[in-house]
Amino acid sequence: MASSGLQICGFLLSLVGVSATIAATFMVEWGKDSQAKHSVYEGLWMSCSGTSERSTCENYKYLLKLPIEVQATRAVMLVSLFFSAMALIVSTVGMKCTRFMEAMPQSKGNATAVGGMLFIISGVLTLIITSWYVSRIVEIHNTAHRLQSREFGHAVFISWAGGFFTALGGVILSLRRCWGSKGSAQSISTNQLLSTTNLKSNYV
């Protein structure tokens, strides 16, 4: 039961992280330029401009004309979500609380470990690309010397949180497989020891 509970805990943590990553990917508040009362919000898919009372949004029409940091971040975030989708499927099959592959406990445990590794890859990709995006924006802002006030939007922090929780849940799922293997090995060794002791006692 403890092992199953930790599996569920790790899966739910990753699920929260994936949900946050999805939200961050499609949010428009990755960056914010402010000048007086006018603000411009920049996302990975669109930009919005206006005041606190009224704003207009426009989708990006030409992918190749976008800044390299937007192109790269958008691509890696989509790859991260792909790994997360695969991890959700594989982990669901391998978890003890599901009825999939009940006749093959060894394969079921391996599926959980693979799902955990996929979650870790997804979370690390999200953390790396978000940090790289932030460093690029800081570098561009420092060299541009613009009058606008440059800020990071909520999407950056949500993306960081999403990557962290996704990877953390994956670590828990993967470690449970290692702990489970150690427990099985110890149980087998104990059984073998008891069998040997019984044989010796019968012989005497």
UniProtKB/TrEMBL annotation:
Family matches, as InterPro entries: Claudin, Claudin_CS, PMP22/EMP/MP20/Claudin
Per its UniProt record, what Pfam families does this chain match? PMP22_Claudin
> Does DNA-binding show up as a keyword for this record?
no
Q: Name the keywords, alphabetized.
A: Cell junction, Cell membrane, Membrane, Signal, Tight junction, Transmembrane, Transmembrane helix
Subcellular location, record wording: Cell junction, Tight junction; Cell membrane
Q: How does it sit in the membrane?
A: Multi-pass membrane protein
Q: Which family does it belong to?
A: Belongs to the claudin family.
UniProt protein name: Claudin
- Residues in the signal sequence: 1-20
Q: Where are the transmembrane segments?
A: 72-90, 111-134, 154-175
Q: What's this chain's function?
A: Claudins function as major constituents of the tight junction complexes that regulate the permeability of epithelia.
